[in-house]
């Protein structure tokens, strides 16, 4: 009997201990869920201020060194009599009708081949599309090895700072960021698995939103992210469509750290696929295969159904369909603007001085890109929530998309390009070629150079 009593006493003791441990765990989870999204110790701001001062000093050092190099180069040019020929190549912006139409004199002119050859060479030399799929050119070196053009040889002081920067980033920042990234991914997988077992209702919805915002916040911080949100009164509302320019997968993390969204995007594999599957356990997202036309029609149908329910989370869409290097906004696909509803434009602009956020998916894998981000100084970004927009009467989806694109580009200080971002992976559409061919045929026909025949 005494042994049984002792056993019961021990069991009660263990039970109390387990109860205390569970209570402490729940208290920690509550503090994390409620306080973490809004906590800020000001460390990131202080760190970025130090970086700005360091980069300004480095820019002065480089400027002085480059001036000396240019002076020597100029002396060499003058001594070899090459200077008078500088700036001899100049591109003239003229239309096909202006250059060709005046040259025809009642017959087909074989010399027109030279016009198209010249325009082709100019297009290759001054291409405005392809550079949008590579890293943005920096005004001055940001002391990163991947952007170095032997500038660390300008002065010994700059070389010392460059080496110290490598040690800080790889020996101090990277280990901490990797640990935080692993923790945030494990937290997302475990928390979404647990929350996914809850019955549908307000509790599950609240927990799901808190988990995603916390994991997104941790994801931004593990990259040294410092994000400034502007005009939060214009944040997307339930049942709306959030439309933003697209530079990187970080766009999703940054926006999700300030609000919850249902995502519309391409299905991925690997690490991104794991994150997508985890998010699907607690929130409705629309994922599709870019190559399947059936998926596109299904996505459009699901978007219509989603925005019809004003209680659902706003949908987050990147209409460019691919990542652009944050210097311009390219063609918006019209599908997002055909379904109706309110469009909430968002402009995202990164500061390339601290790290290049652009993801060139044709060159870097997800893991390589993540490593490049973790070895950067920081990810500094500005986000502007713009006033909601609706399609006007008698306005088609293409014009509405162009209007939204222009607003986003103007707020973010980016240029507007009419080209399709799909040119990163595809060739120019045949319809664009046919359009130029028809223009030339029209010129020849009107000029009477082929008689009564139809050259087209």
What do these coordinates show?
Strand 3 (262-266), helix 8 (270-280) and strand 4 (286-288) form a beta-alpha-beta unit. The protein contains 12 helices and 9 strands. Strands 1-8-7-2-5-3-4 form a 7-stranded mixed sheet, sandwiched between helices. A two-stranded parallel sheet has the order 6-9. Helix content is 50%, strand content 9%. Helix 5 runs antiparallel to helix 6, helix 5 (156-195) packs parallel to helix 8 (270-280) and helix 6 crosses helix 7.
Descriptive key words:
456 residues, alpha/beta, two-stranded parallel ribbon, flat
Spatial separation of the terminal alpha carbons: 107 Å
Task: Tell me the fraction of residues in β-strands, as a range.
Answer: 5-15%
> What percentage of residues falls in helices of 4 or more residues?
40-55%
Radius of gyration of CA atoms, rounded to a whole number: 29 Å
The residue-averaged pLDDT reads: 76
Number of strands: 9
In DSSP terms (H or I, runs of 4 or more residues), the helix count works out at: 12
> Would you list the SSEs in sequence order as H and E?
HHHHHHEEHEHEHEEEHEHEH
Looking at the structure, what is the overall shape?
Answer: flat
Largest sheet: 7 strands, mixed
Would you identify the regions where 5 or more consecutive residues have pLDDT less than 50?
Answer: 29-38, 81-90, 449-455
Strand order of the largest sheet: 1-8-7-2-5-3-4
What structural class should be given to the helix and strand makeup?
alpha/beta
């Amino acid at each position: 009997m005494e042994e049984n009593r002792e056993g019961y006493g021990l069991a009660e003791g263990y039970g109390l201990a387990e109860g205390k441990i569970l209570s402490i765990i729940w208290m920690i989870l509550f503090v994390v869920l409620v306080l973490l999204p809004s906590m800020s110790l000001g460390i990131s701001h202080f760190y970025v201020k130090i970086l700005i001062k360091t980069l300004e000093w480095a820019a002065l050092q480089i400027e002085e060194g480059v001036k000396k190099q240019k002076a020597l180069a100029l002396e060499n040019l003058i001594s070899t009599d090459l200077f008078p020929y500088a700036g001899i190549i100049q591109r003239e912006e003229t239309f096909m009708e202006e250059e060709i139409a005046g040259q025809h004199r009642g017959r087909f002119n074989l010399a027109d081949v030279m016009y198209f050859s010249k325009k082709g060479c100019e297009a290759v030399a001054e291409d405005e599309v392809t550079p949008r799929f590579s890293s943005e050119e920096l005004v001055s070196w940001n002391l990163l090895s991947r952007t170095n053009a032997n500038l660390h040889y300008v002065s010994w002081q700059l070389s010392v700072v460059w080496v110290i920067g490598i040690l800080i980033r790889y020996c101090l920042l990277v280990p901490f960021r990797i640990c935080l990234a692993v923790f945030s991914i494990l937290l997302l997988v475990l928390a979404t698995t647990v929350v996914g077992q809850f019955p549908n209702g307000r509790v599950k919805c609240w927990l799901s939103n808190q988990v995603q915002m916390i994991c997104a916040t941790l994801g931004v911080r593990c990259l040294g992210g410092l994000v400034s949100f502007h005009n939060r009164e214009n944040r997307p509302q339930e049942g709306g469509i959030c439309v933003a320019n697209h530079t990187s997968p970080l766009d999703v993390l940054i926006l999700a750290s300030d609000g919850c969204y249902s995502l519309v995007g391409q299905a991925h594999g690997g690490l991104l696929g794991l994150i997508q599957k985890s998010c699907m356990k607690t929130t409705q997202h629309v994922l599709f295969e870019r190559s399947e036309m059936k998926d596109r029609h299904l996505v459009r149908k699901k978007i219509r159904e989603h925005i019809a329910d004003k209680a659902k989370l706003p949908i987050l869409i990147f209409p460019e369909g691919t990542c652009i290097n944050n210097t311009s906004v390219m063609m918006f696909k019209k599908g997002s603007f055909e379904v109706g509803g309110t469009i909430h434009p968002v402009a995202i602009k990164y500061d390339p001085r601290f790290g290049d956020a652009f993801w060139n998916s044709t060159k870097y894998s997800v893991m390589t890109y993540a490593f490049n981000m973790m070895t950067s100084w920081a990810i500094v970004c500005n986000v502007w929530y713009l006033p909601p927009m609706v399609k006007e009467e008698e306005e088609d989806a293409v014009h509405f998309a162009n209007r939204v694109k222009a607003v986003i580009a103007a707020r973010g200080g980016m240029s507007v390009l009419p080209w399709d971002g799909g040119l990163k992976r595809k060739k120019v559409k045949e319809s664009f070629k046919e359009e130029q061919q028809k223009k030339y045929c029209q010129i020849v026909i009107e000029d009477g150079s082929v008689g009564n025949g139809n050259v087209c």
